[in-house]
Amino acid sequence: MFVLLRQLQNLRRDAAITPPPRRGSLALRHVDVGSCNGCEHELNAVTNPYYDMSRHGLSIVASPRHADVLLVTGPVTTRMREPLLKAYESMPEPRAVAAVGDCAMGCRVLGDLAALAPPLEELLPVAIRIPGCPPTPDVIAEHLLAYLHRRDRAA
Ligand code: SF4
User: Fold this and answer.
1) Which domain holds residue 141?
2) pLDDT tens sequence across 134-147
3) Could you tell me which of 77, 68, 4 has the C-alpha nearest to residue 30?
4) Ligand 1 centroid to 92 CA: how many Å?
5) Is 35 in the pocket of ligand 1 (CB under 6 A)?
6) Rounded to an integer, what distance in angstroms lies between the CA atom of residue 111 and that of residue 130?
7) Count of structural domains within the chain
8) Does any ligand 1 atom lie closer than 6 A to the CB of residue 103?
């Protein structure tokens, strides 16, 4: 194995091929704070073999403790307000919040119900806004990758 890697390195040097640039990655934790499940359906599609966002360095993780970005879908209901804030508090720094879909962006598609808490933007600092009802898998991946590139350029 070591010999093969050495030969590959020599081949690259001889052919003056520069190695591909190193790209960052994002660990994503999803929290549904009251959606109709339309956004979840599209979010699931981003991970399927067709869109396969893992090849771009985007992966869903099971705990906010391992996450760089909190993906939030739905309007924030009063019952989900505390779990949402707890998930955000559990994340390591640097952390970011993504509002996925028009509901999470505060468009009040479902009306101004008593069961709704203040909009996500008033509860947490939202860094990524992904519009649509629901947003398509391409749009979700596009916004997340744009954030990843912005973050890598700033580092
Ligand atoms: S944005 Fe549309 S699809 Fe997503 S949770 Fe709201 S109503 Fe459902």
Assistant:
1) 23-154
2) 999 999 999 999 99
3) 68
4) 28
5) yes
6) 20
7) 1
8) yes
